[in-house]
Write a structure and sequence with these properties.
The structure is a single chain. This protein has 197 residues and is an all-alpha fold. The protein has 2 domains: 17-71, Orthogonal Bundle (Arc Repressor Mutant, subunit A), CATH 1.10.10; 81-193, no CATH class. 71% of the residues lie in helices and 0% in strands. The chain has helices at 17-40, 43-50, 54-61, 64-71, 89-103, 105-116, 118-139, 146-166, 170-174, 177-193. Helix 2 packs across helix 3 (54-61) and helix 6 (105-116) crosses helix 7 (118-139).
């Protein structure tokens, strides 16, 4: 019996309803926390924005604190330190971060929360410490200086994001991705690999 070839119109599996609901809740929560801050954002307002019953928010996240933690749970998807070439780490990191910011408004919302809320700021510090510091430790010539070098690198990357995506300074918005990489990559490279001044 001949094997039937799958047709080009074979339907793709649909996302589960729970996944759709979680996504709607997280999207609404990011926007609400970014606009109102943690203290003023309410489960009721977030549920209304997500077009669901408030009990569903509690079902999935347990509390406002649990929802806030989920909103701030961001994986920067940085390459493993050993996968980075020391000679072009600045180029690789700036391009990586720029791609993340350009493709995904989640990081912009998280940044807004981070600059308006102490818990958000702490979470952003943790994300960068846990995900950027290992790269600095692996690449910098003096591991004792790795935390300072990672912090300087973060200042460049977050400063760009703040100016371009949050405050939307016209000259920062007008830069092409290639121009941004050309300007920032040498600075990030120097922070991570140059001898201590």
């Amino acid at each position: 019996m001949p094997v039937k070839e799958p047709s080009a119109t074979t339907p793709q599996p649909q996302p589960r309803r729970s996944d759709t609901t979680r996504t709607a809740i997280l999207t609404a929560a990011r926007e609400r926390f970014a606009a109102d801050g943690y203290e003023r954002a309410t489960i009721r307002a977030i549920a209304k924005d997500a077009r669901i019953d408030p009990s569903m928010v509690m079902r999935y996240y347990g509390s406002k604190e649990g929802l806030f933690a989920a909103v701030l749970d961001v994986d920067l998807r940085l390459p493993a330190p050993e996968q980075l070439n020391r000679q072009d780490v600045g180029l690789a990191l700036v391009q990586h971060f720029l791609d993340l910011w350009e493709e995904n408004e989640v990081l912009t919302a998280v940044l807004r929360v981070g600059v308006t809320n102490q818990a958000g700021a702490g979470r952003m510090q943790g994300i960068l410490r846990d995900q950027l510091l290992p790269i600095a430790l692996h690449l910098c010539p003096d591991p004792e200086q790795a935390p300072a070098r990672a912090a300087l690198t973060a200042s460049q990357l977050l400063g760009l994001a703040l100016a371009r995506y949050v405050l939307r300074f016209p000259p920062a918005v007008a830069l092409t991705p290639e121009e941004i990489v050309a300007w920032l990559a040498p600075t990030v490279q120097r922070y991570l690999t140059a001898p201590h001044p």
